[in-house]
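Data card: per-record layout.
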Amino acid sequence: MNALVQPMLFCILLAAGLSLCLYLFLTVKAEVRGLARGRLAEAPKIEALEGAFQETRLAVQRIEGELRDVEAQTGMLVSPAQAKSGLNLSKRTEVLRLHRAGKDAPCIAASLSLPRAEVELLIKVHRIALDQI
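The structure for this 133-residue chain is written out next.
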């Protein structure tokens, strides 16, 4: 009897294992199919977000261009008005002090309310004078 029960038990366990594998395979396949449907349903949302992102990127680029134009116009408008008064000695000293501290020309011009071109010119003249020494 023992010789008959062992092969039957082996076949039953094998059938149960194969059934469990088949069940797992079918449930995983159904889950993958459901995820694919969900991804297809989300595709229009993703496309709408990408479109909004592109519109935002274009708006930022447009605003950057307008900002450059305004900066250029402001530098041109401010320069003649301050050129009449000239650059006094204390402003010149302050520009050179800030330049030695590592500040760049636009930052110096903004902090001292001077045209950027005038600050850059002063820094260039100072460098030339140092090179000649």
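Known properties of this structure: Confidence is low (pLDDT under 50) at residues 77-85. The chain is about 90% helix and 0% strand.

See the next section for split statistics.
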